[in-house]
Backbone:
């Protein structure tokens, strides 16, 4: 107690925004199971170091659980057991880290070109005790082509589908899928990118899948099959842009 009496003031944690739901919601226990404590640690890491390093906008802190961690973890509902996953343009680890926490059976590789984000991801993997399950590679999707492949490639807020196909599908193993988290314009993006798929030799139509408890609080995913035939190169696309810090829900 300070001299002269009175109640000592606690120093508030950094970057706490009024209304911040720092504690895990009930839904987190269902989704993350016995790893809910690690999900809490990841949320806290995003709210502190993630904001300090510019990976997460301060206004996103009150929405980390529902709009980011759970939103990404719901992808696990449409991924097969013991799948391998590549998360391109991973940024602060979304969706790759929440997916790994929710699905201990899958192996995840995060691909991120920006050094400060790459460094953050390496530190987060170690702090969360995920080094046996999650790896990180520095580079763009184009840079790791031919070096890595997986049964599932994920992407969130990376690029429109017409561009994303050319970056992501060459990393998908035959018979696998691209899972892209999208918003309400998903059907329009699919239509706009139809010719790109045909040029790549993929005849199957992408599917819009809703994952999570309901349409309002769940996640909209575009699932694109890789197929078993040969994959042709898409038209040349510009280099992968730097991924911006998330600013709101992308369903």
Residues:
């Amino acid at each position: 107690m300070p001299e002269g009496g009175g109640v000592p003031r606690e120093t508030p944690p950094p970057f706490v925004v009024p209304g911040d739901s720092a504690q895990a919601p009930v839904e987190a226990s269902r989704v993350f199971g016995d790893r809910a404590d690690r999900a809490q640690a990841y949320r806290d890491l995003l709210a502190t170091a993630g904001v300090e390093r510019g990976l997460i906008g301060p206004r996103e802190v009150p929405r980390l659980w529902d709009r980011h961690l759970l939103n990404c973890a719901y992808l696990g509902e449409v991924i097969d057991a013991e799948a391998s996953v590549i998360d391109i343009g991973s940024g602060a680890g979304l969706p790759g880290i929440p997916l790994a926490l929710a699905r201990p059976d899958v192996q995840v590789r995060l691909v991120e070109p920006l050094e400060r984000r790459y460094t953050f991801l390496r530190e987060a993997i170690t702090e969360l005790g995920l080094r046996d399950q999650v790896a990180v590679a520095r580079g763009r999707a184009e840079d790791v082509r031919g070096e890595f492949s997986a049964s599932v490639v994920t992407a969130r807020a990376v690029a429109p589908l017409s561009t994303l196909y050319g970056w992501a599908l060459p990393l998908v193993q035959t018979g696998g899928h691209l899972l892209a988290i999208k918003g309400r314009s998903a059907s329009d993006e699919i239509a706009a990118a139809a010719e790109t798929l045909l040029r790549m030799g993929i005849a199957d139509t992408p599917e819009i899948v809703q994952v999570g408890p309901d349409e309002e609080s769940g996640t909209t995913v575009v699932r694109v099959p890789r197929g078993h035939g040969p994959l042709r190169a898409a038209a040349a696309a510009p280099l992968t842009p730097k991924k911006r810090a998330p600013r709101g829900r992308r369903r």
Notes: The longest strand covers residues 172-182. The radius of gyration is 19 Å. Strands lie at 84-88, 107-112, 134-138, 150-156, 172-182, 207-211, 219-225.
